Amino acid sequence: MSARPVPYDPELVDGLAGFLELVERIPLRADTILANREHFATIIPPMEAQVGELAVDWENRVIPGPAGAPDVEVTIVRPRRAPGAAPAEAAPGVLGIHGGGLVLGTRFFGTGELIDLALRHGVVGVAVEYRLAPEHPGTAAAEDCYAALEWFAAHAAELGVDPERIIVSGASAGGGLSAAVALMARDRGGPALAGQLLNCPMLDDRNETVSSRQYDGLGAWDRNNNDTAWNAVLGELRHSDAVSPYAAPARATDLGGLPPAYIEVGAAEVFRDEDVDYALRIWAAGGQAELHVWAGAYHGFSGFSPDAVVSQAALAARDSWIRRTLGL
Amino acid sequence: MSARATPAGVVPVPFDPELAPVLEFMAASPQPPLSWESLPATRPGLATMFPGPVEAIAGRAVDTEERIIPGPAGAPDIEVTIFRPRGHTAADAALPALVNIHGGGMILGHRHWESERVIQLVLELGVIAVNVEYRLAPEHPFPAGVEDCYAGVLWTAEHAAEIGADPERIVVMGGSAGGGFSAAVALLARDRGGPALAGQLLLCPMLDNTNTTVASHQYDGIGTWMRDANLLAWRCVLGEELALSTAASPYAAPSRATDLSGLPPAFIEAGAAEMFRDEDVDYATRIWATGGNAELHIWAGGFHGFDMYAPESELARAALDARHSWLRRILQLEGVR
């Protein structure tokens, strides 16, 4: 049963149409995942184009993957340092995890944020390439991301990063993977994260909330796209009690002892209710979280309608949390 | 201020490190505990405890005016203070209007306590503000307070042309009890076919009389507005029998409303480290479930009223920016930062 949706902010309507035309031209179904990947490859600019004349340096590296799994590619993004300049003070670090429903995209879908943070806050970013479903289902993606966090923390000195000030950050599937990495770091006694920035995170495979029914055949990343993605990740395990919280963090029964969370989502999107619930459960455990649900906003609004008043406010609130959390 | 620990197993969300010293400062000069019996004796000093409107403006470009308006049927008249950008008259282009309802648990406070909040909004956004006085509990239990607030909104809508306000762009707003009253006024306006409000700005609103949420137990003996004060306030407003009851009126405790559809756009803000957090999140969630328009902000480590107690903090500045952004959007204020 679908439910009456929260309406869109009038200023976002054009941006949503643009998003649908650019990103979701082909409805995401089990038999269109590959076609969507090919399409994505045409809309993600290469690193050279993303950086252009901006004062950032970047390099690709290959780092060890999870035990028994292939190596992982990462791209390091950092503020440009003049040749011969003295080493800067240790910088904050951001592990950036791209979106794409766990089935689409590459790390270069998320490097824009890292370039921006390098320029404005001197942050050193690491963008991680993780394996996609359905070829690599379950927790393969989360394990790749966690391997990147371990590598990042272990190589902090080499990268000029303060190991006490590393956060994990991502949007959509990247937000869900960021939440998963925070759970894994807690459970495994791994690197101490300074924060987890979860932008419209994809957390819950069950797709049973009110908001998941309000955006059925409507909007960006609608209920059907979400179903396709979770089916690809979890197959027959989906909806069962056997789903790992590292695949779907909403399945975690204990949200205590996590790093401070920033959770941001639109009021007019599928993920609204599962994201609000995640914040509520962190607070109930005495954990720190900040929650922003932006009026009339579609999935990914701040990236695709960046000049709208609501998007400007969302970017400012996010930046405030980054400053507070990283001591900038 | 009791030093009692929170119940076993309930761990509060910690306070923002920049805010924590404010709490320590407040704890150094504790206020006498509130009680039903002691509340009426506090009334004579309320109006003069804070500067009057002219002193509060302190030379800034804002005009102010005191008015006496009709109260609810059969009830006394109501005092309101109007603030407007300097020199604005009814002959100029009509401005949006904010009707502000002060906080204080429905048992304390005076509109002059919030002159600064209101003046800043007039300066920042170029709006007219009507700051309304209302009767306090326990001397005046439900529905006295909310009916006074509703009368203030009704008067503003009916006299919009006279005060230079645009009747299509009236937002009701308030913090804490004022947020609860604002939500209740929005419900009343819907249910009585009253003024069409452009929005409801609910700052850490006091909505739920049952005191059953996790947050309501996490701030028992710590923070700025603690569980004991809240329990007392609801007793004063609703009486012993209904104080914690789900049978209370939604116009007293808006969380009791079973239908949250057809309401004006809501802005709901609270701290993550305060007892109203969960009831405020729930109110937003239930508005969205009906297809209604709401924006929700829960600020990390914010205690109840953090923006008033620590206005220079990064957290308060960020909260004000989000608030102003929403007002810009709702009131279609072009070019106002």
UniProtKB/TrEMBL annotation, chain A:
InterPro entries referenced in this protein's UniProt entry, alphabetically: AB_hydrolase_3, AB_hydrolase_fold, GDXG_lipolytic_enzyme
MF-aspect GO terms: hydrolase activity
Keyword vocabulary terms for this entry: Hydrolase
Pfam family, one: Abhydrolase_3
Top-level taxon of the source organism: Bacteria
Ranges where the Alpha/beta hydrolase fold-3 domain occurs: 95-301
Name by which UniProt lists this protein: Alpha/beta hydrolase
Species in which this protein is naturally found: Microterricola pindariensis
UniProtKB/TrEMBL annotation, chain B:
GO molecular function, one term: hydrolase activity
Keyword presence, Signal: no
Ranges in a coiled coil: none
Pfam families from the UniProt entry: Abhydrolase_3
Annotated Alpha/beta hydrolase fold-3 domain residues: 98-307
Keywords from the named record: Hydrolase
Keyword Cell wall biogenesis/degradation (UniProt): no
Protein's name according to its UniProt entry: Alpha/beta hydrolase
Taxon lineage: Bacteria, Bacillati, Actinomycetota, Actinomycetes, Micrococcales
